[in-house]
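Side project, low priority. Logging it here so it doesn't get lost.
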Amino acid sequence: PYYVEMNQDLFLQASLHSSDQNLMVFVDTCVASPNSSDFRTQVYELTKNGCASDSSYVLFPSPRSNVARFGFNAFSFVNQFPSVFLQCELVVCRYRDYSSRCYQGCVSRVKRNADS
């Protein structure tokens, strides 16, 4: 566990450990939950599809392509759960493959009408 005060800035880093130096990592989706085994029922989105859902979410420059750095302000769920758990989905791509998901950044998906 990592203990923080409310509204304290949290800084996180995800590292890809691989002998292949031509890979990069991208933070696609991060959600928080008061339950470590349920990230569907009561969740709070920090980022989705590479787009910030929370105004405090920030993606920071990284020293290497195999490292992703991001942060947000600490919060709690309204029902005063004692803990908040974080689950993130990361994407691994070839470095400098500009057609890959890693280089697309924020992708807001628009739903189409079923009639069209």
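Brief comment: The mean pLDDT is 91.
Revisit when time allows.
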